[in-house]
């Protein structure tokens, strides 16, 4: 069964419609090869999955598919590294992340994870990066079950 999916990848000024055979899953080799070919023909980077069905736009009552873990109006900070001034440490090396992420901090969302939540909040921050770069459509894990 053929189904159209609409995308607006970075660098393209107009929307793109790709028609995929829905009998195949996204990781099926035929779909992967088709997406790789589209990336090549459109001059899109080959290191980012920009044309997965989970990254497609939605129309009608829904706006663009939410690619982040949070809903609109989120209290999460995004890309906090951009506003941090240089430390001025002599001989220090600055390394920055490429792409956007949401910053999850302990005691956020009404969860008292002070003293144990740092690693889990770091995991949430990393997962948000994968979602915002469109490598994953899996929700960022929460403390709630």
UniProtKB/TrEMBL annotation:
InterPro entries: UFSP1/2_DUB_cat, UFSP2-like_2nd. Keywords: Hydrolase, Protease, Thiol protease, Ubl conjugation pathway. GO terms for biological process: proteolysis. The keyword Lipoprotein does not apply. GO terms for molecular function: deUFMylase activity. Residues 4-59 form the UFSP2 second domain. Residues 94-143 form the UFSP1/2/DUB catalytic domain. Belongs to the peptidase C78 family. PANTHER family: UFM1-SPECIFIC PROTEASE 2. This is Peptidase C78 ubiquitin fold modifier-specific peptidase 1/ 2. It comes from Aegilops tauschii subsp. strangulata (Goatgrass).
């Amino acid at each position: 069964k053929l189904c159209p999916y609409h995308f607006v990848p970075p660098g393209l000024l107009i929307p793109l419609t790709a028609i995929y055979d829905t009998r195949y899953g996204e990781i099926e080799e035929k779909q992967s090869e088709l997406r790789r070919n589209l990336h090549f023909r459109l001059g899109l980077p080959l290191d980012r999955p920009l044309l997965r069905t989970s990254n497609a736009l939605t129309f009608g009552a829904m706006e663009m598919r939410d690619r982040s873990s949070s809903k609109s109006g989120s209290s999460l900070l995004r890309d906090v590294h951009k506003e941090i001034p240089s430390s001025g440490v002599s001989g220090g090396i600055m390394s920055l992340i490429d792409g956007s992420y949401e910053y999850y901090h302990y005691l956020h969302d009404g969860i008292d994870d002070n003293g144990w939540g740092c690693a889990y909040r770091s995991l949430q921050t990393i997962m948000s990066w994968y979602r915002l770069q469109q490598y994953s459509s899996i929700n960022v894990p929460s403390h709630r079950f």
